[in-house]
Records
---
Amino acid sequence: MIKRFGLLALLVACDSSPGDTPDTLDASETAPDIADSTEPDIALPLRGEYIPADPQLPGDPARGYQTLSAGAYTGCGIPSELMPVADSLGMFGDDPPLPGRDEPLPYYLSRFPTGSGVEVVGPNCFTCHAAIIDGELVLGAPGIDLDFGGFASQIASFQSQIPLVADILEPESLAELERFANRLATVAPWVQTEVAGTNPADNLAGILFSHRDPNTLAWHEEPLIEPPDKLALPVDTPPLWRMGKKHAMFYSAAGRGDHSRIMMTTSTLCVDSLEEAKQIADTFDDVRAWISTLEPPPFPEATRGPIDRPLASTGEAVFLRECASCHGTYGDPSTRADDTYPNLWIRAEDVGTDSAMAIGASHAASRFVDWFNGSFYGETAWLDPKPGYVPPPLDGLWATAPFLHNGSVPTLRALLDSSSRPRYWQRLAGWNAADIGLNFREVSVGHAELTGPGRRSVYDTTLHGHGNAGHPYGDGLTDAERDAVLEYLKTL
Ligand code: HEC
Ligand code: HEC
């Protein structure tokens, strides 16, 4: 996203006119309902709780995808008359378009009208929630190539270039450009992360809430409630295809009630009136419906090697014994109809993973929870963060590295053997087929001893919120059992 905003900043050197193209889309098929669990009939191994289901309104998945690809849900962007030059300068590189969208825009940008009627191009949900894996665009996969490190300086340079185009834009378009730049500049100090690839979305929500009146949604230049800490805790973007099974959104099970209303909080960026927010809300039941039909991509045996089926079936037995009580059971992947998922959250001290996000995270402070619950967004949904973490559904796990809520563990093998987890590690290009996850190199020093641009590429698990301990449930496995479970996990 950050590199992309840097590219957008260069756009202000152009004076071309917009080319508008209507969107078309094939209807996406509807997935079968997952067998919905009620109270689990297993004995809970540790202190945790069942998360009951909240009713969700039905929606049309195909329309939801259309909204995601061309909806006005962020409310701001760059006036689209400034865009064609970006394409002509090759700024979007090889980034593919969104399937079904007849637009010369990369998948992470959308064209839509703002509240003032100016057509703009701005980032969409796929900025964070899509990835290119083995050359294929996978919608819903976590976008882990984002580096928020240079955000503030790139926004500053974006702002400084606005005067260069002031003369060639209509006054309404110039006002939209300034609004977008000013909004990004206001939030920029709160989206700083320490490691490339970790996502500051939770902190972003906190700073956006703090600038808005919860009743009218009017934006105030000065915060109305105390903002969160500036440095964001690291969050590993989750895949969207888990939502077909999950009763609560987010690692801490905070997102309850009508999920569509929570999914639309992206609109706290620039949607500045209740009227606009209501219009967006009307389209988000469809978005929720599309997300709940998303299927994980199957393990690509053609490029990454065939799955050893007999070994995987040995692994399934180990999984059922050691893992299923928290993570559920998985039937035929082509229908998923006989999957079960217990919908639990487990106390942070019991799972033992880094507790900073679950306990005392500034972005989850009660003033933000109260803001949300008392706002338009809280009419049909509510936030109720738990002091723990949800054991997620493990479908499509191979495509979701790194692991844990903070992305501190680069491979599944390391996740299942806590003694082997690297303390300081640097991501390398490519894919780690043997251990399932990221290719990485263990390095001998952490951030305290590193200076220069390479520092952000090192995941330092000794930093606050970045710890890689806990989740010891694979430690007792023999090497053969671990190999078998890893093989089984590829089949989910
Ligand atoms: C700036 C990056 C970013 C953008 C843009 C973004 N998200 Fe997310 N999203 C995240 C992160 C990070 C999380 C995990 C937060 C947590 O659990 O604390 C998340 C969580 C979610 C979840 C819950 C997943 C789960 O397993 O609990 C859903 C659903 C979701 N986002 C949908 C959307 C939709 C729909 C949009 C656009 C309207 C969107 N997101 C825009 C980063 C982003
Ligand atoms: C007592 C409940 C419990 C048991 C048993 C358990 N897990 Fe987990 N698991 C969790 C929780 C809670 C998390 C989330 C922790 C976090 O993100 O900090 C998790 C996270 C994970 C993740 C990371 C998912 C991701 O995308 O980041 C994987 C993979 C995983 N577990 C696999 C397993 C396997 C395999 C087993 C059996 C060997 C197992 N778990 C046993 C509770 C459990």
---
Amino acid sequence: MFFRTQSTTTAAKRTTYSRGTVHCGRCGAPNDLYRVEAVADEFSVRCGSCGHRGFYRKSELGVSQLPERRRRPR
Ligand SMILES: [Zn+2]
């Protein structure tokens, strides 16, 4: 007979991910980058709202740390 034990260690670690945001040079719409670590010093992002392809530097990137699980507002 088998007893399945559920591990409760998942709550101990709180993981975060970093998200970068650049604003479009043409229309100013914020575009999110989800792989902040992977970007080069200069990178290009295509705007999601107007389609303009802009070049940005890593120093322009606004990085915000977000929790892995978002709480939904009730
Ligand atoms: Zn744009």
